[in-house]
Design a protein that fits this description.
The N and C termini lie far apart (106 Å). This protein is mostly helical. The chain is 82% helix and 0% strand. The longest helix has 36 residues, at 74-109.
Length: 110
């Protein structure tokens, strides 16, 4: 009887000591962040803005043979938007004309 109680006490003691050592390990190896997450997000956003600006300047100034600082003028972006919209409208007119010709041709045949 005493031997069985002794074994149970040893088993309980071992479980308690295991839990204590786990808690000690957790507290000992608790990781502290040098840079908080919110600051990391701000740093990433700033770096993305800088790289976007630098890329636009290099693309317009070096590859496009323009003044790199013209990227910051609104008129430059308005000109680019006008060019894109013009091409889109002309492509739409081409498709509309092709569709009308197709429909006109099939009405005559039928």
């Amino acid at each position: 009887m005493k031997g069985q109680q002794l074994e149970e006490n040893q088993a309980q003691t071992e479980e308690v000591s295991k839990e204590e050592t786990r808690a000690e390990r957790r507290s000992r190896f608790r990781r502290t962040r040098l840079i908080p997450i919110w600051l990391r997000l701000i740093i990433v956003a700033v770096l993305m803005a800088i790289s976007l600006t630098a890329g636009a300047m290099i693309g317009y100034g070096v590859i496009g043979d323009g003044n790199p600082f013209d990227v910051f003028h609104r008129s430059t972006w308005q000109h680019i938007i006008d060019i894109v919209e013009k091409d889109t409208k002309s492509n739409n007119h081409r498709w509309e004309a092709a569709a009308l010709l197709f429909l006109h041709h099939h009405r005559k045949v039928a």
